[in-house]
Every structure is written in C-alpha cells, then in structure tokens.
Amino acid sequence: MDVLYFAWVRERIGLPKERIDSDAATVADLVDELRAREDRYAAAFADLTALRVAVDQQLSDFDAPLSGVREVAFFPPMTGG
Amino acid sequence: MDVLYFAWVRERIGLPKERIDSDAATVADLVDELRAREDRYAAAFADLTALRVAVDQQLSDFDAPLSGVREVAFFPPMTGG
Amino acid sequence: MRVAVQEAPFDLGAEVAGFADGCGGMGAVVSFTGIVRDRPGSGLQAMEIEHYPGMTEAALTRIAQEAQARWSLGDVLVIHRFGRLAPGETIMMVATAARHRKDAFEAAEYLMDYLKSRAPFWKKEIARDGAEWVAARDEDEAALDRW
Amino acid sequence: MRVAVQEAPFDLGAEVAGFADGCGGMGAVVSFTGIVRDRPGSGLQAMEIEHYPGMTEAALTRIAQEAQARWSLGDVLVIHRFGRLAPGETIMMVATAARHRKDAFEAAEYLMDYLKSRAPFWKKEIARDGAEWVAARDEDEAALDRW
Asked: Cβ neighbours of residue C80 under 8 Å, at least 6 residues apart?
C-alpha cells in the first residue's frame, strides 16, 4: 500500500510517500512496524495524540483495519482556513 | 417644531413634514392633538403599537417630553438591511 | 470605519476587495450583502427604500461604533442604498475585518441585526398588482436579544 | 456549488460579485475571506500551505454538501489555495447565498469551522528567524461542537 506523510511528519521522516508491503492488521500495527524501522520514524510517531490518520483518503482511527486498503496517510491536526 | 412622517404614516397623512406649534408636554400629548385634527391623522395614529417615534433623530418613547425639542418623527417599525 | 448612505449603486466586488486590501492582512474578513430578491413569478417589479436623512447616518455610525467597542475589529464598512431598486440589485452591504474569524462573523451579524431593526429604513415592494410596505418581522426584533 | 483547490491567486472581488450575481437575488450573501496576516514587525515572510491532493477536494465537497443539506441555501462557493503565499495575500474564501441572512451566516460559519479542522491543509509560517508549522488550536476543534 502507499503510505503518505504530510507537514512535519513528512519533514521528520524525510519523504512524502513510500510503498510499503505490510501484513499489519490495523493502522496501529502499521505504526508499530514503522517505529521499529529507524529513529526518524520513531520520532515522527512518538506521540500518536499529535497525529491524525486518513485511510483511503477518509479521516480514520488508529484501530482501523487495513485489509484491502490502498492508501494510508499520517499528518498533524489540520490547520486550513 | 418640525414633525416628520415616513413610509405608510407619510402616505396616510399625505405629507412628509410639517411645522407644528404645540404646547404638548409629551409625544403622546402631541399624538392626541394630531388625532383630533382630521381623520387622516386619526387613521395614521390609530394603533400606537404599530408606530415608532424619534425625538431629535433619536429613537424614543411616546412618553418622552417635548420641551426644547426641534424635530419629532413618526414611522412604522424599520425594515432595512 | 466607513458608513455610506447613498442612492447610487455600489460595486460589491470592488468594495469587498478594497476593504480586504485596506485591512493590512487582519486575517479574517466577513461580508454580508443584501440583494433585492428576484424570483420568477413573484411579480416583483421594484423595491423602494425610504430613509430618514440625518438620522440614518447617525444611527449606522452608532451601530458600527458599538460593534467596534464589543469586538476586536480591524475595520468596519457599512453601505446602504435608498430609492428605487430593481430585482437582483444590491441593497446594502456590511464588512468586518478581525484577527479571528469568530469576531468578524459575530460583528457582522450584530451589525445586520441592529441595522435591520434600528436604522431608519423602510422597504416597499412594487409588484404588478400593487405596492406594499414590507412588514417588520417579530424574529428580527427577537434577534437583538442575543447581544 | 463550486469547490476549487488551487495554487493560483483568485480575484476576491470578482468571485464575490460573480457569486452574488449568479444567485438570482436570493436576498442574502455572506462571504468569509482568510488572508495571510501582515503585521509590521512580525517578521513573517511567507505562509506555505501544504495539502493532500485528492482528499482535499473530496473533503471540501463533502463539507459543502453537508452545509447544503442543513440549511436552505441557494449556492455555496469554496476556494482554497496552497503553495507559498506572501503576507496580505488571500488564502481562501467561502461564500453562501440564502433567502434569509441567518441561514447564510450559519452556513458560512459551519463551512469555516469544518474546513479549518477537517480539510487536509497545513500551514507553515516562514519568518526571518526560522519556519514553524502552525499548531491547531483547541478552540478550533471545540468550535465543531456547536453544530
């Protein structure tokens, strides 16, 4: 699946998008996999309360299932307007 | 003093403005004087709850005193905007 | 702060853009525009707006000053026309600028609520089958209670 | 209904005037405009706005549709820019048209409240002494509770 990062999550991880093959059952499982990869991921995902997630471009929760999902995006709370 | 009429009050009385020399102590006294003049005045002032009054261009009440007043205006509730 | 009472049309786009430009980037600009309704089949041919010269300007100025006292505003604009207007024509506008959108929105609603019931304007609808003064609505008077 | 997400500037005056013209005289038109703040001495050089292409348009469309479902509206317009903006530049606007001013005001505030916290935009302030992501404010999240 495609994993996207925006705003300071993108900056901390150092890339806007990557293809990840994962058997993670939920978003939270995927986060655990990413955290284990490298320090920059651990830093980006240190505090989940500061993060939001979209699953297939819909705002979602960290316990959302990933079965059949094509795109997951992580970002801070939105600040439009 | 000058007495002004607006909207349907003006139409009912048939003029926008007139000079009236009156010893009326209050707006209500002035209204009584006007009502006694002619039917068109009696018709215009038949229902005071449907009227508003401004004394020297300030929204006011029917019991407001008229001493020293230069201008009184009668009109229906306002409908701007 | 600018308050204008005029018979001439005004350019809504130019007024809103000029107001926003002149606010030094306050962050939030709200505008309200009142337009003569233009519904097919309504038979409305024109709207005649009468006002009380002298008192009108003073009343609008006082309302705008009160808004500036209650909210933290960068600027306030009020334009209200009088005379004979065709359906679709712009009757009036208010605009407010503030650092925060809540102030800009609330101040614009306050201006409209007071302008509607406390500024000396009267509207008459001219239709094919006759003319009628617009009646004040109870809900417009009630709207003042929230402030 | 029109929703636009674009890097290019837009002409605020032309958009507001065109929106009002296109509403067939609905009576009441409200607009909100967000502008990059331009305070002397703030040191702000630019605002960078990032967004999530694809999701942004869908989110704004959903918010606009929800507003149309909740209020009796003639039309809704939402324009939001992304990219690098200078102080004083227009970031975004919404406009609503309705027969009654209460509907137009409430719908515009609703659009702004949801757009602010539910549409995928992120602002970064570029100042002389560094750059910083704008933090979401608790009161913006709390503003959703009233709807």
From this structure: B80, C4, C5, C6, C51, C56, C60, C91, C92, C115, C119, C121
**What is the count of structural domains for chain A?**
1
- Which is nearest to D65 in space by CA: D19, D110, D12? D110
pLDDT tens digits for B33-64? 999 999 999 999 999 999 999 999 999 999 99
Q: What is the CATH number of the domain that holds B32?
A: 3.10.20.30
Q: Across the 81 residues of chain A, what is the mean pLDDT of every consecutive 10-residue run?
A: 98 98 97 97 96 97 97 97 93
- B29 lies in which domain range? 2-75
**Which of D121, D126, D144 to probe the A interface (max A CBs under 10 A)?**
D121
Locate the domains of chain D by residue range: 2-146
Quick one: chain C helix, strand, coil %, rounded to 5?
Answer: 35, 35, 30
**Mean per-residue pLDDT pooled into runs of 10, chain C (147 residues):** 98 97 89 90 91 97 98 97 96 97 97 97 95 93 92
Fold designation for C2-146: Aldehyde Oxidoreductase; domain 3 (3.90.1170)
ipTM score above 0.90: yes
| B79 at interface of C, judged by CB pairs closer than 8 A | yes
**Residue B81 located in a structural domain:** no
